[in-house]
Every structure is written in C-alpha cells, then in structure tokens.
C-alpha cells in the first residue's frame, strides 16, 4: 500500500468525524493533525484520539503510529485562537 498523502489522511478523518476545523500536514511518513470537533466535548484526550483512530479505521492501521494530533473542541480552539487575533501592529 502506498503511503497516504496528508490530503488523504485529512479526507479519511473528515469522512468519519464531524470537524469544524481540520488540518493535516505530513510527508507520507509522519503526519500532524489539528482536529477541532464538537464530538470532543466532555471526553478525555485519550478518548478523542480513539475517535480519530475509529474515523481512520483500517485504512491507516499500518501508518497510525506516525500520526500526531492535537484534538480540540470548538471552544478550546476559539480560546486558543483568540489571543493571536487581537494583536495590533
């Protein structure tokens, strides 16, 4: 099986998980995903990661160890993004 592209990984996650924001960077070997989903509300980080793995399913069973992710709820994402938006030069 060919190494997936970051676009493919992003598509797989989006198909299995309702995301408000989804960004995947990577080189085919290592991926870093930023995933913002309302489904993460009220669940632990481990459970969030399990949801993403479920979304990816068997497609990435081999590659999954090469995926790092930041899982955030929309509220967490907003509070994280807010300070950067208020900078004035």
Give a structural overview.
The chain is of the alpha+beta class and 89 residues long. It has one domain (6-74): BolA-like (GMP Synthetase, Chain A, domain 3), CATH 3.30.300. It has helices spanning 6-16, 45-56, 74-85, and strands at residues 21-26, 31-36, 67-72. Strands 1-2-3 form a three-stranded mixed beta sheet. Strand 1 (21-26) and strand 2 form a beta hairpin. Helix 1 (6-16) crosses helix 2. The mean pLDDT is 87.
Measured on Cα atoms, how large is the radius of gyration? 14 Å
- CATH C-level: Alpha Beta
Largest sheet: 3 strands, mixed
How much of the sequence is in beta strands? 15-25%
Q: Tell me the series of helices and strands, N- to C-terminal.
A: HEEHEH
Major sheet strand order: 1-2-3
- What is the distance, rounded to the nearest whole angstrom, between the alpha carbons of the first and last residues? 49 Å
Spans of at least 5 consecutive residues whose pLDDT stays below 50 are none
Q: Roughly what percent helix?
A: 25-40%
Let me know the number of strands: 3
Classification by helices and strands: alpha+beta
User: What would the CATH topology be?
Assistant: GMP Synthetase, Chain A, domain 3
CATH H-level superfamily title:
BolA-like
On the 0 to 100 scale, the average pLDDT is 87
If classified by CATH, what would the architecture be?
A: 2-Layer Sandwich
How many distinct folded domains? 1
Total of DSSP H or I helical runs spanning 4+ residues = 3
